[in-house]
UniProtKB/TrEMBL annotation:
Keyword list, A-Z: Cell membrane, Membrane, Transmembrane, Transmembrane helix
Name of the protein: Uncharacterized protein
Main location: membrane
GO cellular component: plasma membrane
Subcellular location: Cell membrane
Entry membrane topology: Multi-pass membrane protein
Top-level taxon of origin: Bacteria
InterPro entries: Poly_Biosynth_Transport
């Protein structure tokens, strides 16, 4: 990957991503060690539910990155457009992404609370009321968090972008450690899951550069911005079901998960994190890269896809050979998974990672409908495959390996046609 969007930014975001990944693993480790597998499955469902909704909110990150990037295309430093007061934009053709995010977050939180009576009891089998309230408030805050990441990426503010990621992860770890020390139990880990979503506010208070970036505008109407964002949110929501919300999908298609479900959820999470955590964190980098290389989109895909495939192939081998021992040694003798299962789950993570890269390319090309269709198609395929009359482990592997292939085909077809 070359160009102003990636040469210096990948290193900075890469370091932040590594720290974020370590922090995520630490939270999972503490939860798995502090809770038995059955309790961890309950925590895993909430972790997945929050990841599902915040993953959908990452559509705001994608849309903000693209629009701020295009608005500032006159210079690679992104200084062309600042606040509305300094831009000679036509009346009605200026949108403040952060203001839009505040409205979207408020509405989203209210919808979760308002509809919870119909679904919460089936998803959150313990601490139901607390889970709903934390999910609603955490999502409302994360809408602003994701949009701030987007405007920072669009403006090449990669140091602040990384700082926001690390602050989020650090807060989660701090609450998780406190939970273990004071014996808070499952409720404390629920708080730890959402605590980092206030990081955007802390960074705004601490960083003048971040406050400046938060005033950036897009040269389009709010309605147009929301229309593009809605496609991105729909697709990001579908992707989040596969990437973060998969435990919720397992719960919905399997009923009671129990201890076996806890082991499978932990195995899925551990095998995909090395690939998907960095890719999720680098969505801004990827979209900015594909916008810069919009003259030859398919060729621009080759390098990131090849990199993902090579790293993923090594991960499959490592998971097969060392995964079972690492799970037992790291999380306790109750967490037993064969090497073949861990290897296949890693292959599923590679498939989702490739789908993430092709999705970023379609967003950069403004192919919002194809982007949505690809992720929705992959999610529907995975959900249908989870209903096969197989054991839980087998159904999980088939869904995660085969489902993403549908979405990859849709994305590549749309890019080829343009």
């Amino acid at each position: 990957m070359t160009g102003p969007a990636t040469r210096s930014s990948v290193a900075r975001v890469g370091v932040a991503t590594a720290v974020t990944a370590v922090c995520g693993y630490l939270v999972l480790y503490l939860a798995a060690r502090d809770l038995e597998p059955a309790g961890f499955s309950i925590f895993g469902v909430f972790w997945g539910a929050f990841g599902l909704f915040t993953g959908a909110a990452n559509g705001l990150l994608q849309q903000s990155t693209r629009e701020i990037r295009l608005a500032g295309a006159g210079g690679s430093s992104g200084v062309a457009l600042r606040s509305a007061g300094t831009v000679g934009a036509p009346a009605g053709a200026v949108t403040h992404p952060m203001r839009v995010a505040a409205g979207v977050g408020l509405v989203s939180g209210l919808l979760i609370v308002g509809t919870a009576i119909g679904w919460a009891g089936h998803v959150f089998v313990e601490h139901t009321v607390l889970s709903v309230l934390l999910l609603a408030v955490g999502l409302a805050c994360f809408c602003l968090h994701a949009t701030l990441l987007g405007v920072l990426a669009g403006d090449n503010r990669w140091t602040q972008y990384g700082a926001l990621m690390v602050t989020d992860a650090g807060i989660r770890v701090a609450v998780a450690v406190a939970t273990v020390l004071i014996g808070w139990g499952l409720g404390g880990f629920l708080w730890a899951t959402v605590a980092g979503s206030v990081a955007w506010l802390l960074l705004l208070l601490a960083s003048p550069i971040t406050r400046h970036a938060a005033g950036l505008v897009a040269h389009e109407t709010p309605r147009s911005f929301l229309r593009g964002a809605s496609h991105a949110v729909a697709a990001a929501g579908a992707s989040a079901i596969l990437v973060m919300g998969f435990p919720v999908l397992l719960q919905a298609t399997s009923g009671e998960l129990g201890a076996t479900g806890g082991v499978v959820i932990l195995a899925v999470t551990l095998t995909r994190a090395p690939l998907l955590v960095p890719l999720t964190a680098m969505q801004g980098n990827l979209i900015a890269h594909f916008v810069d290389e919009r003259g030859h989109r398919l060729r621009a895909l080759m390098r990131p896809v090849t990199l993902v495939a090579v790293i993923g192939g090594l991960g499959v081998v490592a998971a097969y050979l060392t995964g079972p021992w690492l799970m037992r040694a790291g999380f306790g003798p109750e967490y037993v998974a064969p090497g073949a299962l861990l290897g296949w789950l890693t292959a599923g993570a590679v498939a989702i990672a490739v789908l993430t890269v092709t999705g970023a390319a379609t967003v950069a090309a403004a192919l919002h409908r194809a982007y949505s269709l690809g992720w929705v198609g992959a999610t529907v395929a995975a959900a249908l495959l989870l209903m096969l009359p197989l054991e839980l482990e087998q159904r999980t592997v088939v869904a995660l390996v085969c489902g993403p292939l549908v979405g990859i085909a849709v994305h590549l077809g749309a890019l080829a046609r343009t």
